[in-house]
Design brief:
The protein has 354 residues and is mostly helical. The protein has one domain. The protein is built from 15 helices and no strands. It is globular. This is AbrB family transcriptional regulator. Keywords: Membrane, Transmembrane, Transmembrane helix.
């Protein structure tokens, strides 16, 4: 299901971006966690749900433009690679093993909870509660006769609920707003002109490799791998500047917000209740894993929680980047989560059919 038209009206696109930017600036002013991500998301989503049509068109944003910006996240994450991180990765096996258990447990518990409400059919409930692989889950559910519109809303709202709740969780835990609202800045090496062609090349080549090789979250993981090689070999030292990372947050927040355009309000409120229920259960399990595993993997509980949170790889990696929190650790676990979530859904789908 698509909630926005593929035909882009450029003046409306400009107004949508202006609305997103206004949301980000207001978010900064009121100390919203990760204001340049959440501010645009909330502002544009409110306009979309309110049926606002600037210049006669609903708020809109081309997915192709989002795809151009996403590799910036991967290039920035690749810039954090050091030989020390590669050494640390050998100690991550307990949490990587744990996530293989976490995925089916979280899926089954969430499925049973949503199914117990009696609001939707078993196929839609099963694929709508898969804790990863949005596109794959919707496709598999559609093939098995699920409600495609509700499936899409459940999976999309899982991402939104997680993206909104995770920064708030960190704000409550730390006592102050996280991200740029709290005054945090990214302590990465400044980019020079000599770095520029290498970083652009890492983004373009990495994105193409990720797409061609069908890597999980390929538009992020591909540039991560190429950027990591570029930085580990000393070809480049710097990373994308803060203003570009903030612009990427604006683009991602705005692109998520426009997905609410055209959602029937009645179905939306049902979907958000069910998605909130399943996501709350998964987040609770992630918190348990965080405090249980932190001592075994040498990472703070907050980083382990972020690695297990049921959000999208792009969005969770961006949050980790903005919070300067075990970026490579979080991204590696979310790539594993997507692969496992799709594999578990396929495995259990046969039992569901029977």
């Amino acid at each position: 299901m698509r909630f926005i038209s593929e035909q882009i009206h450029l003046p409306t696109l400009g107004l949508t971006l202006a609305l997103g930017l206004a949301g980000g600036l207001i978010g900064q002013a009121i100390h919203l966690p990760l204001p340049m991500l959440l501010g645009p998301l909330l502002a544009v989503a409110a306009a979309a749900l309110g049926r606002w049509k600037p210049l006669g068109h609903p708020v809109q944003f081309p997915m192709m433009l989002r795809m151009i910006f996403i590799p910036i996240i991967g290039v920035a994450i690749g810039g954090t690679f050091t030989p020390a991180i590669l050494d640390e990765a050998r100690g991550w096996w307990p949490s990587l093993l744990a996530i293989a258990v976490f995925i089916p447990v979280a899926h089954v518990i969430s499925f049973r909870a949503v199914r117990a409400t009696g609001q939707i059919d078993p196929v839609t409930a099963f694929f709508g509660t898969a804790p990863g692989g949005l596109i794959e889950a919707v496709q598999m559910g559609e093939e098995m006769g699920g409600d495609t519109a509700m499936l899409t809303m459940l999976q999309f709202l899982r991402l939104i609920v997680t993206i909104v709740c995770v920064p708030i969780f960190f704000t409550v835990m730390t006592g102050h707003a996280v991200g740029s609202a709290g005054g945090a800045t990214l302590t990465r090496t400044a980019m020079t002109l000599a770095d520029l062609p290498w970083l652009i090349g890492a983004g373009v080549l990495g994105g193409l490799l990720g797409w061609r090789l069908k890597l999980p979250g390929g538009m992020v993981t591909g540039p991560i791998l190429v950027s990591a090689i570029v930085h580990l070999t000393g070809l480049a030292q710097g990373s994308p500047p803060n203003w570009l990372v903030n612009a990427t947050q604006l683009v991602i927040g705005t692109s998520l917000g426009v997905r609410f355009a055209g959602m029937p309000l009645g179905r939306f409120w049902l979907a958000i209740r069910l998605a909130g229920l399943s996501t709350a259960l998964s987040i609770t399990l992630a918190i348990i894993c965080a405090f249980s595993l932190a001592g075994f993997v040498g990472e703070p509980p907050a980083a382990v929680f972020l690695a297990f949170a049921p959000g999208g790889l792009t969005e969770m990696s961006l949050i980790a980047l903005s919070l300067q929190m075990s970026i490579v650790y979080v991204t590696a676990h979310h790539a594993a989560r997507i692969l496992l979530a799709v594999a578990v859904a396929r495995l259990l789908a046969g039992k569901l059919a029977r």
